[in-house]
Amino acid sequence: MKNVSIIAASLLLIILLIGCKDRNDPHAGHEAAEEVYTCPMHPQIVRNKPGSCPICGMDLVKKETEGKRADSIDLESLLKPTNEFVISSIPITTLKQSGQPMEIEALGTVAYDTRQIGSISSRVAGRIEKLYVRYRYQKISKGQRILDIYSPELLTAQQNLLFLLKNDASNKTMIDAARQKLRLLGMSAQQLQKIENTGKADYTVSVFSNYSGHLYDAGSSSGMNNTSAAATGMAAVPLTQQLSIKEGMYVEKGQSIFNVYNLGKTWALLNIFAGEAAMIKKGQPVKIVSETSPDKSFSGEIDFIEPFYRESSRTLTARVYFDNAKLKIPIGSQVRAVITGNRMQAAWLPREAVISLGMNKVVFKKIKNGFAPQKVNTGAEINNQIQITGGLEYTDSVAVNAQYLTDSESFIKIN
């Protein structure tokens, strides 16, 4: 029994010694743990070395083993909301300082030059006895008879001249004053000569056009008095609709009866988008091709840039004046224009690297093993390149294509 007690005591001492040793060894009871890597989005993918997920392409993350905290920024990144940080291995790019050749394409239309619109007005009050034009946009020539008008004022002025010529022929001052009055009332030298030769007053006096072009009645309510409509020459009614001015109608002194649009003096109205507006300057050369007459290309320059955006298209309008007398490009024709200029030196990114969030422009900036949205300031867009004016340094890397990192069902949060 004594030997048994000694053996039991020895065994107890050995067990106690082993237990103390285990407590002093922090790795006691642990087998050499093998490092394991997995995909955060697809946990079924397990590897024993770093790599990429064969399903989604994301970087594999070291899996935390028992008793050991995963020393990984990757997991901290994964815990961030998806709209603040994205883990990916897509290609990256940086800002490139270069000079982009400026060549801007624009669409537009051919329109009347509103500076060349002539007005046929009545210099006297009276009644239209005869009308020699019948429909809107009828082509007329300078010197063509437009209408005959009866005016008591004109008739009285003619009779005064004839009375002086018959009864006071030596009074040159009064006779010249009477002739001048008739000229101011719209009579031509030929008409004056006629009444002096015949000795008879004309009850109706013809009104002639001082302009060549397309005729339109100035008193119409169809909207042609509006500058924009007048420029394009397009009305809401058929172009051959009858004039609103009719025979037998009365006109007031000084009333504008017709407008005449010059066919030879026209302009091309080019639509310039907001992203390109800063690059357009007066005097820049332009090459224009008409879609209705592609063989009639011509060159010009920017003559005027309207200082406002048009509500219908949200574009600026640049005007290019040109002589259409020989080209004869129809009014309203669609045109394509190429505006050229000097090379533009700036910092550029590929257009696909920037996404638009309403008023904000965003890129995905490379941060360690992932990407975070970064607001940037942008400028011109040329040749699929976009100018970056602020928000990035030349050392910053961004995703080449930001669309790959966006989620259509989430909102991107900008830090």
TrEMBL record:
<dbReference type="GO" id="GO:0015679">
    <property type="term" value="P:plasma membrane copper ion transport"/>
</dbReference>
<dbReference type="GO" id="GO:0060003">
    <property type="term" value="P:copper ion export"/>
</dbReference>
<dbReference type="InterPro" id="IPR058649">
    <property type="entry name" value="CzcB_C"/>
</dbReference>
<dbReference type="Pfam" id="PF25954">
    <property type="entry name" value="Beta-barrel_RND_2"/>
</dbReference>
<protein>
    <submittedName>
        <fullName>Efflux RND transporter periplasmic adaptor subunit</fullName>
    </submittedName>
</protein>
<feature type="domain" description="CusB-like beta-barrel">
    <location>
        <begin position="267"/>
        <end position="337"/>
    </location>
</feature>
<dbReference type="InterPro" id="IPR058791">
    <property type="entry name" value="3HB_CusB"/>
</dbReference>
<dbReference type="GO" id="GO:0046914">
    <property type="term" value="F:transition metal ion binding"/>
</dbReference>
<dbReference type="InterPro" id="IPR058792">
    <property type="entry name" value="Beta-barrel_RND_2"/>
</dbReference>
<keyword id="KW-0813">Transport</keyword>
<dbReference type="InterPro" id="IPR051909">
    <property type="entry name" value="MFP_Cation_Efflux"/>
</dbReference>
<feature type="domain" description="CzcB-like C-terminal circularly permuted SH3-like">
    <location>
        <begin position="350"/>
        <end position="401"/>
    </location>
</feature>
<dbReference type="InterPro" id="IPR058790">
    <property type="entry name" value="BSH_CusB"/>
</dbReference>
<dbReference type="Pfam" id="PF19335">
    <property type="entry name" value="HMBD"/>
</dbReference>
<feature type="domain" description="CusB-like three alpha-helical bundle">
    <location>
        <begin position="153"/>
        <end position="202"/>
    </location>
</feature>
<dbReference type="Pfam" id="PF25919">
    <property type="entry name" value="BSH_CusB"/>
</dbReference>
<dbReference type="InterPro" id="IPR045800">
    <property type="entry name" value="HMBD"/>
</dbReference>
<dbReference type="GO" id="GO:0030288">
    <property type="term" value="C:outer membrane-bounded periplasmic space"/>
</dbReference>
<dbReference type="Pfam" id="PF25975">
    <property type="entry name" value="CzcB_C"/>
</dbReference>
<feature type="domain" description="Heavy metal binding">
    <location>
        <begin position="36"/>
        <end position="63"/>
    </location>
</feature>
<dbReference type="Pfam" id="PF25869">
    <property type="entry name" value="3HB_CusB"/>
</dbReference>
<feature type="domain" description="CusB-like barrel-sandwich hybrid">
    <location>
        <begin position="120"/>
        <end position="260"/>
    </location>
</feature>
